[in-house]
Amino acid sequence: MTDRLYYHDSFLYDFDAEVREVLDSPRPAFILDRTAFYPTSGGQVHDTGSITSDANAKFRVTEVADTEDGRVVHYVEAVSDNQKNDTNPGDLKPGTRVRGLIDAARRRDHMQQHSGQHVLSAAFLRLDNMPTVSFHMADDYCSIDLDTPSLTKEQIESAERLANEIILENRGVDIRFVTREEAGNLGLRKLPPTERDELRLIDIRDFDLSACGGTHVAQTGQIASILLRKTEKVRQGWRVEFVAGQRAVATARRDFSTLTETAALFSAHIYDVPQQARKSLDEIRTLRKQREQSQEELAAAQAAALLAETAEVSGRKLVVRTLADRDLNFVKLLAQKLTRLSPHAVALLATTSPQPSLVFAQSAGLPLDMGALMKETMTKLGGRGGGSKDLAQGGVPSADGIDSALKAIAEKLMA
Ligand SMILES: [Zn+2]
């Protein structure tokens, strides 16, 4: 079993060790007699850093994992050196002395998130009797799942406030080792499911006591701050996203930038953004309604004018017209008005832009088949479309040929 130095000191970033095993599959990896590298477990992600041999061969530690029998595996990549050739991990022999260096900024961040989680979980338990059932640490935020059927805004805010008070009080965070039997009488917030005899306890003075193998700060002040973010209902309760320490500052900074950019669009103060956005949406809704009404009126007027200037031939008023800068909806509206205003109208309409489209329509009861006529026209123009006996529509790839196609159909219908 690897001696885990981080069990006793989370701030140990630099250590000496001896290579015990060199693995080459699936990836090159070292197993050392002792390590300060934290392997991914208990919701906390692994450390990164470097391992350098006494002969100065340097390897980047890219991932650290636990084995079932208690060894810590350091997955490594050789670091190129301009002076000499790369050294293969396989060149290191068991017994080689090495020095391990942990990426301290990453470790510090993980300690802040993980210790922040202990404080937050204890706060939800104390205030609202909501136990934490799982913890997840992602690259930009963390989350806990609470076993509760409901979670209010007030509960979120008071847990956040209490957690930050505990941070401000700079309480000691002690590491203790006890037997499982001793632990049973201590009232732990969390007991691990494994059958280990010795338990490692993380004791946040007079606030939280739980068994945990992770890396934690030495005093709560080092967590710096906790900011609660999104909450959502999940299968077994409620998920609460949070960020601690520098992540909280970085997240608040990003939120502020986003809000400032949005506020500038409205020429408003950031706190007035919701009100301004609501006002704009209301305006858009009103304008959309007004536009619909105007289109109706325009289509009705245009239909009346077209019918007035079209002579009735053999009991039929054939209106042929190609429009520009009108969308398909308007053309359909116009066709509808034409066939409703007159009982004898046949409309062959088209628009060239924004999307070249055609609409054929006839007044109810007339004997032609607009759907069939449209299909035939689409075949000629290379478009797609169809419809019913009285109304059909189609779209074509280009406006070229629309006019001549309409003219040909009109001549056929007049014949
Ligand atoms: Zn922990």
Describe the protein in words.
By secondary structure, this protein is of the alpha+beta class. Helices cover 34% and strands 29% of the residues. It contains eight helices and 20 strands. The strands form five sheets. The chain has a six-stranded antiparallel β-barrel. A five-stranded mixed β-sheet has the order 16-17-18-20-19, sandwiched between helices. A four-stranded antiparallel β-sheet has the order 9-10-15-14. Strand 19 (384-387) and strand 20 (391-395) form a beta hairpin. Helix 5 crosses helix 6 (328-341). The longest helix has 37 residues, at 273-309. The protein is elongated. The protein starts with a strand and ends with a helix. The model has no long low-confidence stretch (mean pLDDT 93).
How are the SSEs placed, and which strands pair?
Layout: E1 3-4, E2 14-23, E3 29-32, E4 34-35, E5 49-53, E6 58-66, E7 72-78, E8 97-102, H1 104-128, E9 132-137, E10 142-146, H2 153-168, E11 173-179, H3 180-184, E12 198-204, E13 208-211, E14 226-234, E15 237-244, H4 246-266, H5 273-309, E16 317-323, H6 328-341, E17 345-351, E18 357-362, H7 370-381, E19 384-387, E20 391-395, H8 402-414
Parallel strand pairs: 1-4, 16-17
Antiparallel strand pairs: 2-3, 2-8, 3-7, 5-6, 5-8, 6-7, 9-10, 10-15, 11-12, 12-13, 14-15, 17-18, 18-20, 19-20
Helix pairs in contact: 1-2, 5-6
The chain binds zinc ion.
Residues 114, 118, 202, 212, 214, 216 line the site of zinc ion.
